[in-house]
Design a protein that fits this description.
The chain has one domain (3-98, 105-112). The protein has helices at residues 3-29, 33-36, 38-63, 69-94, 107-113. The relative contact order is 0.12. The chain has 5 helices and no strands. The chain crosses the membrane at residues 6-28, 71-89.
Length: 125
């Protein structure tokens, strides 16, 4: 394997590992569920993206052509992680899980909780 590819793989692995470590630490240390959602959706998604990019470069070199499996996994994670975090936040909101007392705009949580789903307007004809 050429030296420049080894450097790209090593740098991608190091960056991905650092982001995964930060995301894992944040998941353990952040105090409530609303703050804990930031760690896996942001830091861990970037971390796994770095590791998958390193894997894609390495596998592409071994096979001799572009390896798209890792690219598809990365795209899937980048699409599904924010959606999953949104669903977890909505569930926590509707289960009335309390946030920290120092969280700003807590009155908005009640407004969002009691909001009705929009209905489709009826056709007047």
């Amino acid at each position: 394997m050429p030296f420049y590819l080894e450097v790209i793989v090593c740098v991608s692995l190091l960056i991905g590992s650092v982001f995964l470590l930060i995301g894992s630490y944040g998941l353990v240390r952040l105090p409530d569920i609303y703050m804990r959602l930031h760690s896996p959706t942001k830091a861990s998604t970037l971390g796994i993206t770095g590791i998958l990019i390193a894997s894609m470069v390495f596998q592409s070199h071994l096979k001799g052509f572009l390896s798209i499996q890792e690219l598809l996994i990365t795209l899937f994670l980048l699409i599904t992680a924010p959606v999953a975090a949104n669903m977890i936040a909505k569930t926590a909101l509707h289960q009335r899980i309390k946030s920290l007392d120092k969280t700003q705009n807590q009155e908005l949580m009640e407004v969002i909780r009691d909001r009705e789903t929009p209905s489709t307007p009826k056709d007047p004809t």
